[in-house]
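Form 12-C: Joint structure prediction
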Amino acid sequence: MNDERRVQQVLARYVRATDRRDGRAQGALFTDDAIVQIHTRTGPDSYEPVGEPLIGGAGVEYAVTNFMPPHPPGGASHHTTSDHIIDIDGDRAHLNAQFIVFEVRAAARPADGWPAGVSGAQGSVRPIESGYYDTALRRIDGEWKIVHHRVLLDMPIALPGS
Amino acid sequence: MNDERRVQQVLARYVRATDRRDGRAQGALFTDDAIVQIHTRTGPDSYEPVGEPLIGGAGVEYAVTNFMPPHPPGGASHHTTSDHIIDIDGDRAHLNAQFIVFEVRAAARPADGWPAGVSGAQGSVRPIESGYYDTALRRIDGEWKIVHHRVLLDMPIALPGS
Amino acid sequence: MNDERRVQQVLARYVRATDRRDGRAQGALFTDDAIVQIHTRTGPDSYEPVGEPLIGGAGVEYAVTNFMPPHPPGGASHHTTSDHIIDIDGDRAHLNAQFIVFEVRAAARPADGWPAGVSGAQGSVRPIESGYYDTALRRIDGEWKIVHHRVLLDMPIALPGS
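Section 2 - Result
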C-alpha cells in the first residue's frame, strides 16, 4: 500500500470513529501532543477558531466520549470525505479533504407493519454540515498519526450562551 | 495500477451498473458462487439480514434486471461511495466503504420555455439511503471479483406485506 | 505518487477552484487547446451539448471569472466527486467520476446571540446538481493537464431566454 492511501485511510478511520462516537478509536489516530482546532468560516478565505484546541489523543478521546451528543434511537451519521489532496515528504504528510456530514434517522416500523403502498428504505438522510479537513500527519514507527488537525466548518456553531 | 485502486474501481463499476440498472455489467463483477446479502440496522452495532441472499453473478444479474424499479422519465440515481478501507492479502481483498444514495429528478422544460427569472440546473437531488458496503474480493486470472458483498443499510426496508 | 492519484488530484484542484470561483487556478489545469463542453441528459444514455464549448485554459479562466455567479454572503459550495475510474496509457489518461454539488448557506448569528436551545452548526447544506465528469488528460512536461472535459449534467439548465 502506498503512503497516500495509508494517509487517506487514517481519515477513513477518523470519520468512522466520529460516526460511532468511539473516542478510543478516534484518539488512537493522534499523537500525544497533537493539536485539534475547530474553525468556522467568517468570509471567502477567512476562518476563526472556536473554543480551545484539543490536545493529543487523550484529549480527543475525552471530547468524543464526553461531549459529542449520542445518536437518538434509529439515528446515525456519515462524515464523508472527498477530493483528497495529499502531499508526502518523507515522514511528514499533509492532507486536505472536503467533508459533508449526513444525519440519518431510520423510521420505526409501525407495530402493525408498513402501510400499504409504502416500499423501499424508510428514513431520512440529510446533509447538515460541510467544510474542509486540513490535516498534518507524521510517520512514527511506521504508522501515520495526526499531529495537527483543523476542522474548517462552512458555518457558525451555536454554543450555549454564545 | 496498484491493487487497492483496482479493488476500488470494482466498486466504482458496481455503483454505475446499479444506477444504470445494468444487470449484466453488475453480474460480471461477481464470482459464480458469490453471496450478496442486504442487512438493515437494528442498533448501534447490529444488523439483521433482509430476505434471502443472492447467489453468484447470475443471481445478481437476474435481481437487477427484474426487481430494481426503473427510473421514471427524467429520473436517475447516484450511489456514491467514500472513505474506503482496503486490505489486500495476496489474492484476497477486503473493502469497507460508506455509501450515500441520491435520487435525481430532472425537471421537464415547460413547452413555452423556462419562466422568467429561473436559471441554472432544474431538478432535484435528494439523499435517500445510506450505510456501508462490506465486501470481500478474490483475484481470479488477474481480475478482482466480488465473492461476498454485504449491504449494511442504515434504515429498515418496507417490503410488500411485511 | 502514482499517476492515478496525480490524475485524481487534478480533479480535486478543479473542484476547489470552481467552489472558490478562482478562474486562474481553474484555467491552469487545462491545456491551451483544451475543449470543455457542458451536456445535459436527454435520456438514459443520451446527452446534448449546451451552448458553445470553452476553449483552453484562458477560456476556462474567463468563464469562471466572468460568468459564474458569486456566492452570496455566508454562501459556499462543494463540488464533490466520487467513484473515479481512471485509465492511464503512457502520457494519456482518461477519468470518469460522479459528481454531486452542494450549496451551502451559513446562518447569520443574530445580533443578540443564538436563541436558547439552539446548538450545533447553523446553516443549510443542499444537493443541487449531479452528474458525471468525463475527462481526458495528457502529461506535458511531467504534469497532467486536462485536454477534454465533458460535464454530463443529470438535469436541464435554464438559460435566459431559452
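Section 3 - Comments
The beta strands of chain C are 30-43, 46-49, 54-55, 75-89, 92-106, 120-121, 123-140, 143-153, 157-158. Chain C has a mean pLDDT of 95.
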